[in-house]
Task: inverse folding
């Protein structure tokens, strides 16, 4: 059985239907005090530390959408990168 990190990479490869060749240079132990692989994160960690990819509908402003997200997930801080407006 593969270790969890490699299982995650394999699931991404299968989802993307890409089969790049991976070259393993050396084995290293991961210090989990610096983080976790995504499949080991709790839902709370995904919400607190993650990114929401949002296709904003016409009407509400970017500021309004950020306020909704903060309220929905009970967040103190949230923001957006770039514009959420369609052209």
Result:
């Amino acid at each position: 059985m593969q270790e969890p990190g490699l299982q995650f990479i394999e699931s991404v490869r299968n989802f993307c239907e890409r089969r790049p060749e991976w070259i393993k240079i050396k084995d290293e132990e991961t210090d989990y005090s610096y983080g976790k692989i995504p499949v080991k994160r709790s839902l709370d960690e995904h919400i607190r530390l993650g990114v929401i990819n949002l296709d904003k509908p016409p009407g509400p402003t970017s500021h309004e959408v950020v306020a909704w997200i903060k309220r929905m997930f009970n967040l103190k801080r949230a923001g957006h990168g770039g514009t959420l407006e369609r052209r």
Q: What stands out?
A: The two ends are 48 Å apart (CA to CA). Helices lie at 4-16, 43-49, 62-72. Residues 4-72 form one domain.
